[in-house]
Amino acid sequence: MAARPYTAVLIIPTGIGAAIGGYAGDALPVARAMAQVADRLITHPNVLNGAQLYWPLPNAYYVEGYGLDQFAAGRWGLRPVHQNRIGLVLDQAIEEDLRWRHLQAADAAQATLGLDLTDYTVTDAPLGVTLRTAESGATWGTIANHDSLLRAVERLIAVGADAIAVVARFPDDFGSEALQNYRQGQGVDPLAGAEAVISHLVVRTFQLPCAHAPALTPLPLDPSLSPKSAAEEIGHTFLPCVLAGLSRAPQFVTRAPAQAHDLWAEQVDAVIVPATALGGSAVISLSRTKTWVIAVEENTTTLQVTPEQLGIRAIRVSSYLEAIGVIAAHKAGVGLAGMRSHISPIQPLVK
């Protein structure tokens, strides 16, 4: 009898300076390798987005963070699709030249990738994005005009959009130390936290897939740029990876009836997360089930939230390469003790 499909969830929280996955799609190699071992890989845009660079993974589920939290808690399911029709929201604050760059990227996605987009809409007021940094070093942000964004999304849903791409004008801050550190492959992505606020709002309100691409003035050339940040500096827009990801992002199932191919939290076999970033809702929810929690020590972050602090039983591994080995053993039904050089004999059960 064939085993059921093996499902892994790869989580690298946004805006916490993760050594792997905290930059411009630099966790995509991890996702590609993991998707070769797991039958189904659930992850979020922060892992798969690399501006104009992306990689199609047929067995990967592109799930926004708030939706992933709801899935892990058992409230929502994930329903695979063949194709979503994507609606594009542009912030009124985007300058005309920069707006055309994004519209041309959207046109190219239709002509070159065969994606299906509705006509776009512009918000009726500037979204007013501001950026913030917490004492831990993690980034977050706010938008001043939530209602303007929601009205724009409603217009797109009315013309048949199944998924929403948002492009908001983010503040330019060429001289900031945080930006310079990020370009050198250090520190925290200064935009990531605010991006999460935008996509969370849309998914929470409409229960549709959503992802965000910031609109920014292109930065001046820096010959010393880190490879981990370089994907964001090879063009005028970060939109292509968002459109590619949303094109086949699963729909959220929030009510009965369920369908045969719907995916639910009880089907998750393993969740993989940085060893100092286990405080997220999705990890905590999955840790209360039979899901294996795999904590990767090599992927350091600005946080210090360990499995031991939370009372979570986790398998600590040194690297993602080792995590992939653990998944392979789990999928094969091989106990991890049998993979070690020394095996302790079984002992009498203590009453």
Give a quick precis of the structure.
The chain is an alpha/beta fold. It has 11 helices and 15 strands.
Tell me what you see in this structure.
By secondary structure, the chain is an alpha/beta fold. It folds into two domains: 7-80 and 253-333, Rossmann fold; 86-237, Rossmann fold (3-Layer(aba) Sandwich). 31% of the residues lie in helices and 18% in strands. It is built from eleven helices and 15 strands. It has a six-stranded parallel β-sheet with strand order 3-2-1-13-14-15. Strands 5, 6, 7, 10 and 11 form a five-stranded parallel β-sheet that branches. A two-stranded antiparallel sheet has the order 4-12. α10 (307-310) links the parallel β14 (292-296) and β15. The chain is globular and about 75 Å long.
